[in-house]
Amino acid sequence: MFRYISRRIIMMIPVLLGVVFVIFTILYFSPGDPARTILGVTATEQEVQMLSEELGLNDPYGVQLFRYLKDLLRGDMGRSYKNNKSVSAEILQRFPTTLLLATLSILFAAVIAIVAGIISAIKQYSVFDNIVTGFSLLGISIPNFWLGLMLIILVSLHWRLLPASGFYGPRYWILPLITNGVGYMAGIMRITRSSMLEVIRQDYIRTARAKGQREIVVILKHALRNAIIPIITLIGLQFGRALGGAVLIETVFAIPGLGKYLVDSISAKDIPVIQGGVLFLAFLFGVVNLCVDILYGFFDPRISSQYRRKKEKAVKMHAKQAN
After folding, report:
1. Separation of alpha carbons 208 and 301, rounded Å
2. pTM, 2 dp
3. Taking a C-beta distance cutoff of 8 angstroms, is the pair 73, 235 a contact?
4. In a domain, 227, yes or no
5. Residue 314 has pLDDT above 60, yes or no
6. Domain interval for residue 176
7. What is the CATH number of the domain that holds 187?
8. Total domain count for the chain?
């Protein structure tokens, strides 16, 4: 298992390098002059040229890319053109808010969706199953930014029940969580229902019931554990999407997180912040996928036993070669 995790971590390196190359190239060739953006329209051409030289913006493409990669190895993502603050410090300062929003959204969606998906599979073609199926289709179809705007208009402005912006306490969390979680909930419901329907028709489920085990034990211990792998995969992918896709939610609800910080930086053409933010989100997505792969071994005994057999085989081969 340790070798597998190490291999996955090493495989993340070329992915991150590819992300750096793509985002750096796009921003380098995009129209606009960062120095002019920093100094404003009232600055003279001489002042713009002096600042471009100071920031190294006049250097060739290869020189700038090499310098940026060298700084990244030291953990330096550069300084913001807008306020001259460290990009790394600014990202780490705002990231906890985005992480909290993504984590609460996925927990809210997963708990409700898994329970509803299990009941829907057990009571197939019932009224509850039809409601869950209809909600899943509706939840996937509704854009989350439109849902957020509708909730603000109805709940905050019309009924005055909850605040419309900010992220300063539990009352401020409710509308963003619902907006961000509905789409994820719909997807998890669908995959839970389909996975459970496939598993509960297997012979070992009928055998467990024939042995007289309680239905709750059959569902949770035998059926859900064997159906959980695709559910975990989807939750992991959606958690990565929630970290990166919080841009819309944070913008709609004026949440001071990493997503809104990136949107503001794109408007100001703050290249170091855009590069650092995208790279940081790509790294997080890779870490989430790695954690999902590790969880497979804990939930599915077939995967953990497979790694044990490989380890035992390697030990036997080593002992045979030693003899």
Report:
1. 18
2. 0.85
3. no
4. yes
5. no
6. 87-268
7. 1.10.3720.10
8. 1
